[in-house]
Amino acid sequence: MVATNSVARRTGNVSVGTSAFAMVVLERPLGRVHEEIDVVTTPSGDAVAMVHCNNGASELSQWAGLFGRFAQVIGADVGQDGVFAALLNEALEGDADGGGLLSFNNLSGEPVADLPDGRPLVVRAPDSSFTLANFMRTQVYAVFSTLSLGMRILDAEDVQVDRLLAHGGLFRTAGPAQRILAAALGAPVAVGETAGEGGPWGMALLASYLGEAGTMSLAHFLDEKVFATASTSVMEPARADVIGFSVYLDRYRKALELQRVAPEAVPAVNR
């Protein structure tokens, strides 16, 4: 929250790493208890609704590693950042609904989707449009699908967000993940120049704030002393992307039964 300047009410942040989560600072308590939503607080004590997904970008990273190794084998090694940039930008060339492909990134259980265990899966019908662009688009969709399910609960609670800022390594490549996240959440998403930074930097900022704690609020300190000159890009959700993701998410929900039976059909391999 601190690393993204998201401690004031009606602000929120999305972090994507091994796990993925969204945190929104509330104006008022939620109307009822939701098992999918954790209620925590900002360092200043304001209530925060948190949608936490166990599975983030790990499966996407595995695929990037596979494609990176392929590039090495054919003598076209471009480095990890280059592989991610190429694949994420290719995702934007895919069909808005993923061309009929489905990707599940569940390396473990996912409480938001009521999954006690998980298995990564790629599923397609024989007539799906099986292209690299659609494959990569659905891999990115997989990172945000359960997050989107959880955020829809907050939408139903009429939780208002003026500013949603994303951070994590996935956003180091400017544009693709930000655009897809905006579509998945149906809200503008901002990414700052510190998008690759996270918790350790936030803790350093809190340590710096100790000297100012008696003279200004944490929100004022961050606004005036830390982020006043920070560069931030904001991306609005594109209508075609929002519609496409909605179609994809409907398919995803219907196919969750595959995830429920997969751990029994495909037991873990002990090594």
Kindly list the characteristics that best describe this protein.
single chain; 271 residues; alpha+beta; seven-stranded mixed beta sheet; two-stranded antiparallel ribbon; 16% strand; FGGY_C; xylose metabolism; Carbohydrate kinase FGGY C-terminal domain-containing protein; carbohydrate metabolism; ATPase_NBD
Description:
The protein has eight helices and nine strands. The model has no long low-confidence stretch (mean pLDDT 92). The protein is 41% helix and 16% strand. The protein has helices at 58-73, 79-91, 132-156, 176-185, 199-209, 218-226, 239-254, 256-265; strands spanning 11-16, 20-25, 38-41, 47-53, 101-104, 121-124, 163-167, 189-192, 232-235. With 271 residues, the protein is α+β, with helices and mostly antiparallel strands. The chain has a domain at 11-55 and 152-235: ATPase, nucleotide binding domain (Nucleotidyltransferase, domain 5, 2-Layer Sandwich), CATH 3.30.420.40. A hairpin with a 3-residue loop joins strand 1 and strand 2 (20-25).
Brief synopsis:
Pfam families: FGGY_C. With 271 residues, the protein is α+β, with helices and mostly antiparallel strands.
Record the SSE blueprint.
Elements: E1 11-16, E2 20-25, E3 38-41, E4 47-53, H1 58-73, H2 79-91, E5 101-104, E6 121-124, H3 132-156, E7 163-167, H4 176-185, E8 189-192, H5 199-209, H6 218-226, E9 232-235, H7 239-254, H8 256-265
Domain Carbohydrate kinase FGGY C-terminal: 13-209
Protein name: Carbohydrate kinase FGGY C-terminal domain-containing protein
GO molecular function: kinase activity
